[in-house]
Amino acid sequence: MVDAQTIGILVTAASVTVAAVYYVMTLRTQQRNMKLTLETRRVNLIDSITTRIVNVEGMRRYFELMNYEWKDYEDFENKYGSDNNIDSAAKRYSVWSDYNTIGTMVRNGIINIEDLYDMGQLGIVFLWAKYRSIIEEGRKRYNGKNYLRDFEYLADEVLKYVKVNDPEYRIPESLTRYVPDK
């Protein structure tokens, strides 16, 4: 016959086993929920970016910037600098800051290049290519070498991603102007 002490040991062992199984199941459920929460937050962040940049006003600002023309840095400052054209400077800084913020998120692993590319954000590369010399001169004159570094990082990463998927890709010379094939 089984005595009371043996029954007590068996009940204690069974209780510990049930508690351990319950704990493991709870941890797995929490991990699954945390993963879903993080994915939901990432999707919401991407949606927020899309809402800000890929709406009518965001696209209007982008295309306006892409259509600016200048001869050199002084000409650019005379036409579009904050001393002479506050609206233009505000639009420019707003768009550049958006892309710089997105670049920071990409660099920190919060969002990935594939998502941006899938959202049609190749325009990041075009905008950087168009304004690179202006931004670099602004770094020298006013803002320091790290100014908009994550915008530059973002454009480089998007271009790398594009080239991996299409090695023949080249940034169009025309950017926003139609240039027929020769």
Q: Describe the oligomeric state of these chains in a short phrase.
A: single chain
Give the overall pLDDT as a whole number: 86
Shape verdict: elongated
Q: Provide the β-strand percentage band.
A: under 5%
- In which range does the helix fraction lie? over 70%
Series of secondary-structure elements, N-terminal to C-terminal:
HHHHHHH
> Structurally, how many domains make up the residues?
2
What count of helical segments does DSSP give? 7
Largest sheet: none
For the record, give the distance between the C-alpha atoms at the N and C termini, rounded to a whole number.
99 Å
From the alpha carbons, calculate the radius of gyration and give it in angstroms: 27 Å
Question: Structural class from helices and strands?
Answer: mainly alpha
List unreliable stretches of 5+ residues.
none
Total count of strands: 0
Describe the structure.
The protein is mostly helical. The chain starts with a helix and ends in a 17-residue tail after the last helix. The longest helix has 50 residues, at 4-53. The protein folds into two domains: 1-53; 56-176, no CATH class. It has helices spanning 4-53, 56-66, 73-80, 86-107, 113-118, 123-143, 149-165. Helices cover 74% and strands 0% of the residues. The radius of gyration is 27 Å and the shape is elongated. Helix 4 (86-107) crosses helix 7 and helix 6 (123-143) packs antiparallel against helix 7. The protein is built from seven helices and no strands.
